[in-house]
Amino acid sequence: MILVLLGPPGVGKGTQGARIALHYVLPTISTGAMLREAISKGTKLGKIAEGYRIDRGEYVPDEIIVEAVDERIEEPDCLNGFLLDGFPRTIPQAKVFAGVLLKKKRRLTGVIDFYAPIDAVVKRFSGRRICSICGTTYHITSQPPKIEGICDLEGGTLITRPDDEPDVVQHRMEVYHEKTTPLRDYYRECGVLHTIDADQDPDLVFRATIELLNRLEAEETLIFEQGKWNV
Ligand code: ADP
Ligand code: ADP
Q1: What's the pLDDT tens digit per position in 214-230?
Q2: Which one, of 137, 129, 61, lies nearest residue 92 by Cα?
Q3: Based on the structure, what is the number of domains in the chain?
Q4: Which numbered atom of ligand 2 lies nearest the CA of 123?
Q5: Which of 86, 169, 180, 184 has its Cα between 20 and 30 A from that of 94?
């Protein structure tokens, strides 16, 4: 199963991605998390990404991110499939990625578009906190840690992501609408877009997602026969 998780910053892609990954035993590839980790470890990708102010919501160039994903999905844990969170984010990324999949003779199962009204989304990322050590995501009210301000897993201090600071968020939403909203139309035209109502409790969002994925799995062979596998 190869899935793309789409939706504005803060809608809950990471939260649902972690649950889907656990359910199907698949890795989640979050390009945002990948970039943050690469920067903090000072890897080659991190040094390149540092030039692009991702802490201000600026996108890194398409070719850099596509190459990083192309390399990542060659790893053995991706053999049975993977989830993509935050990638593709632009139409050029999606088109090049379609070519990457085609070359590897792999097929996109579907694109899940998580939707919630803007005021719900704003509430989510303004309360988002992440572990300063392992990056696990919490929310001050909807997904609080057991001990306030401390990660349940690593014991690290919980911090606000620099790009969740109020002055950056507005810009990120604008970038999302300019660059990523057209992607939704592109995938809709390709016939692979499925919208999930994300404006509900995470358990209910997850249930709706799994129902959809069960349906998509059943349809897989049919989609393949119709020759749409290279979208
Ligand atoms: P969110 O979870 O809030 O949607 P992410 O963690 O996915 O944000 O991404 C954080 C930042 O990393 C983005 O604002 C952008 O600067 C950069 N980034 C992540 N994925 C991509 C991508 N596919 N293309 C370009 N830049 C990206
Ligand atoms: P994204 O990856 O799309 O940027 P996250 O999964 O990081 O979004 O979620 C953003 C914030 O909202 C996090 O603090 C998370 O705990 C919280 N959250 C996620 N899903 C829900 C939901 N269905 N209801 C309320 N809060 C949620």
Answers
A1: 999 887 755 555 555 44
A2: 61
A3: 1
A4: 12
A5: 169
Whether 129 is in a domain gets the answer: no
State how far the Cα of 151 lies from the Cα of 137, in Å rounded to an integer.
9
> Which bound ligand lies closest to the C-alpha atom of 48?
1
Whole-structure pTM value = 0.90
Residue 139: inside a domain: no
Asked whether residue 96 is domain-assigned, the answer is yes
- Tell me if residue 106 is catalytic: no
Tens digit of pLDDT for each residue in 107-133? 899 999 999 999 899 899 899 999 999
The residue whose two tokens read 């990056």 is 135
Domain hosting 82: range is: 2-27+75-117+173-225
Q: For the CA atoms of the chain, what is the radius of gyration?
A: 17
3-state helix, strand, coil in the chain (%, to 5): 55, 15, 30
